[in-house]
Amino acid sequence: MHTGTLISLGLYFALMIGIGVYAWAKSTDDSEGYLLGGRQLHPAVAALSAGASDMSGWLLLGLPGALYLSGLVEAWIGIGLFAGAFANWLIVAPRLREQTERLGNALTIPEFLANRFPDKAVALRVIAAIIIVVFFTVYTAAGLVGGGKLFVTSFAGLFGDTGMSDYMTGIWLTAGVVLAYTMVGGFLAVSLTDFVQGCIMVVALVLMPLVVLLDDGGVTTVVNTLQGVDPAFLSLTNGLTFLGFLSAVTWGLGYFGQPHIIVRFMAIRKLSDVPVARNIGMSWMAVAVLGAIGVGIVGRAYVEQNGLTLEDPETIFILLANLLFHPLITGFLLAALLAAIMSTISSQLLVSSSSLTEDFYRLFLRKQAGEREIVNVGRVCVALVALAAIAIAQDPDSQVLGLVANAWAGFGAAFGPLIVLALTWQRMTGAGAVAGLVTGAAVVIIWISLGWNSSFMGGEGIYEIIPGFAAAFAAIVAVSLMGVARTDQAAAV
Fold it and tell me: Which residues make beta-bridge pairs with 459?
């Protein structure tokens, strides 16, 4: 790798750590500052932070890889996600911002659920925290796999026989930088770095397809090349069945239950900022998703035209960055990929840490723990979750999209119906909340274990979020209707 590329990456790492130090000085004196940035996020920061923490390495690795391999039909995942994100901003964001502050100034999603349903407070906090820690460890591992792939592809042979190009070295370096600014600066550091990372990501996703198109001879040449590969490569319906369509677009259901995304809604500085943040966030997402689709499509054309071999489709972004750009720009593009990976990892680590500290440590071990103690325990928990994720990510053959799909479905099914109904339905009970939480997570785990997401009843698989979300929603409604809602619960919505 050229020295210019290393300089760009070095500057990026220094910027992330510098933001962490700034946030440490501004907002880590108490748990509200460390876990929610004091609820003072600017709408632009909240919007891009939600978007960057959402998209992760999936946006620059998983989605382009799927499009590279199967064609435009894979774009339905992005379309479903866009619709789900928009609904999330409309339904969840304003209500969650208002209710979490009003109901006991909750700092975590489990704490909000406990305040909303006090008769099942302990059960909800414990079960929700367990689900968050388990699924986020897997989700974090997906990001680390992306970091490992980046270093294997881009740094091979750079340091001779020192092993610096090894997959695990990439994982440790990625985790190390994330830990540096997350442990030091907490939520504000994570949100500010997400904002910067979101800007870098969207510029890279606009730049790369345009450069590839110019290098390939324009749109007509790309289209002709891809039609030579498969006449239906650019068709949105090629080989698409009803179940396949449903499995793709229902990714959007997962947004309602992603703690690392919706926690940004809790931290926006005031309720009136939500529409502004929504407009910024959805504009960013539209450009980013279209760019990722473009990378996969034009990347396949470039590989075909130049007779290249790409063993792992999920590394198409890295291949194009290394072949087409000046080393300084290559460093910027690789920083964009690292930004996508690190923004999500840092958010997941912090949310997992907040659940461990607020919903386990403070709840069971040290009810009278001081603010400084809670902040320090949170930092330790960030490191522990990261180590567990590193252990899971050790397999270099892991597929980023597959790991993300499983974790996304787990959160979407367990928390999605629960959050939506808790915010909007007065009749919901604490028992119903517990039933939905357990049912959603259990159905997803069972569905994956039986392999029904790959093949169901001899046919094609069904994405696990569909049965999980439906079962959780039904369980909440059925159990709630059998009980009696408390008056203080009804007043919450």
Answer: 456
